[in-house]
Amino acid sequence: MNDLVLASAVSPFRQRLIDDMSMRRFSRETQRNYIRDVGRFATFLGRSPHTATAEDIRRFQLDQQETGVPVPTMNSIVAALRFFFTHTLDRPDFARKLVRTAHARKIPVVLSQDEVKRLLDATTCLKHQAALSVAYGSGLRVAEVSALKVSDIDSKRMLLRIERGKGGRYRNAMLPEGLLVLLREWWRAGRQHGVMQADGWLFPGQNASVPISTRQLHRVVVQAAEAADIVKRVGPHTLRHSFATHLLEDGVDIRVIQALLGHAKLNTTAFYTQVATKTMRAVTSPLDKLALMSPSGATSDG
C-alpha cells in the first residue's frame, strides 16, 4: 500500500486524534509526537491503526525491541498509542495490551552556577540569551520557552503564565527580577527591529508569526556551551535540571521546587537529590559524630 493510500485511510482517525488532544489542551509538541508515534504503528501495520488487533500490538512491540528502539522512545510510543486507543477509538482493552519497559533513569547533567553564567554570556544575540535565561531562571521546559507569548509575562505578580505545559497543564512559573530586566531589554530591541508584537510570541522564529523552534533552541545551547568551553553534554533541559538542583542546594523546600517545575509527582522532583552535591556535602555523617577513642591501654598492632 503506498503512502498516499495509507494517509487517506487513516485521515479521519488522525483528525479525531488531533481533536481529542486539542480538547485536552495538549501542547503543540505533544500533539506532534503523538501523531508521529501513531503513524509509526500505522506504517508497521501497512493499514489504518483502527483495524489493529491485540496480536498486531504484540508484534509491533516485539519488533521495536528486536530492532533496538531506545527504551524512552518505546515508552513514548506506548503513551501515544494508549491515548489513541483509549480516547480516539474507545478501545481501552487494547490500551491495556501495551507494555511499558522499565529502565534505569540516568542522573541528569547539571552545570555549576559558574558554568551557567559562562554559557549565557557565550550566546550570540540578545534573543538567545533571554530565551536561555528563561529556561534557567524560571526552570521551564524547552517547549514551554518556545510557546511563551509576550502576554504571558505578569510583571505585577512577577510570574510567567505557562498555558500548556506537559500534559496540557496550566501553571505559574517564577519570574526573577533580573530576568524581567533582561526580557524588557529584549522587548525594546525586538520592537526596534520590528519582530515583536504585544500579542505575539516572546521569542519569535525567523518568521515572526511562529515561535522559535525547540530544535533551534537546542542548537543555541550546544553552540553556546562549545563557545564557553563547557565539555559536558548539554541541551536546553540541562538548564532546567540546573535550576532545580541549585534551588535544592540553596535549601528551598522540595515541594516548592515541585510546584515551580510543574511535576505531577514528588518522586520526580526528589530525583534531584542525587545530583545536589552541595546538599550532600552539608550532611554530617553519623560516623563523624562518634567519639572514636582507643580503649585505655590498647596497643596498636603495628
UniProtKB/TrEMBL annotation:
SUPFAM superfamilies per record: DNA breaking-rejoining enzymes
Protein family according to the UniProt entry: Belongs to the 'phage' integrase family.
Keyword Chloroplast: no
Keyword Acetylation: no
This protein's name: Tyrosine-type recombinase/integrase
Tyr recombinase domain span: 106-285
Record domain Core-binding (CB): where: 8-89
Alphabetized UniProt keyword annotations: DNA integration, DNA recombination, DNA-binding
Domain of life: Bacteria
Segments traversing the membrane: none
